[in-house]
Amino acid sequence: MKISVLTATYNRGKLLKRLYDSIVYNLNEDIEVEWLIMDDGSNDDTEQMIAEFIKENKFDIQYYSQENKGKMSAINNLVPYATGNLIIECDSDDYFRKNAFKIIKSNYNEINDNIYALCYLKYNQNECNIGKLFKEKQTTIFDLYFKQGEDGEKALVYNAKIRKQYKYELENNEKFVTEARMHHKMDQKYNIICINEPIMICEYQKDGYSQNIIETFKKYPYGYYEYFKEMFDMDLKGIYLYKRLYLLKHYILFSVLTKRKFKDMLKNVKGIMNKIAIFILYIPGKIATKRKFK
Questions:
Q1: Cα three-residue angle 104-138-168, rounded to 5 degrees
Q2: 2, β-bridge pairs
Q3: Which class in CATH covers the domain with range 2-203?
Q4: Reduced to 3 DSSP states, what percent helix, strand and coil does the chain have, rounded to the nearest 5?
Q5: Coil, strand or helix: which one is 10?
Q6: DSSP strand E in 162-227: where?
Q7: SS3 state of residue 96
Q8: CA triple 117-118-122, angle to 5 deg
Q9: Looking at CB atoms within 10 Å, which of 95, 128, 181, 211 has the fewest?
Q10: Residue 92, CB half-sphere, CA atoms under 13 Å: how many?
Q11: What is the pLDDT of residues 106-138, one digit of tens each?
Q12: How far, in Å, CA of 17 to CA of 121, rounded?
């Protein structure tokens, strides 16, 4: 069993030591590990920090660099280099808990050709779960968040054979798109296994996407528009009402931000009730969007 840890980083040199140490701590589980790092155009001491890690020669570290194109492009470019059975995407502001690889190893036999990921809990630095506990053992990311009420970030350990068939689809030269867009495509053919154990600690940074969601929406609307448009292809039967409203309102929001004509955006909406809801919500949604993103 081999784990490939993939990290995209941009001016986060000061944080990488913590992630590095967490990997080193987990090396005693008789698991082969490689760490693939894509430096997304940093101008801090990132390269020097990684050179020091490589010099210590404790495990395989591969350093790559690219012009600044964003996290998703960086991960897309790293995936082909991964040689592990499992792929874990770990942000530079995240790090592994001390028993993470042991837990993953104990669940490894649950992966098969129908499972694209093991899905674990992610804790904050106060050791509190981000979101809720899982209700179902085997599910999809779409069902997890839209039918089972999950609302927090999770840690995914991908089946590398399946993960390599997909990539983050970026639109209009944007640098970011929600991971869920790729996950929902994977959901069409495969499932995930949910395990109520934490393997990762997360610390949101002030300059991160999560902490600046409105600015993220404004800068990268085209990918989000495609994401919400594609959600109408999912099985919407049984989703929570507030989640259906979330889908409809955000579809309107990104239709406005990307300047779609009403008749064109309506064509993508499946189901008579959804179309009626769009008719009702479009004008107030358009007004609210223009005020919020003025």
A1: 75
A2: 32
A3: alpha beta
A4: 45, 20, 35
A5: coil
A6: 191-202
A7: strand
A8: 120
A9: 128
A10: 26
A11: 999 999 999 999 999 999 999 999 999 999 999
A12: 23
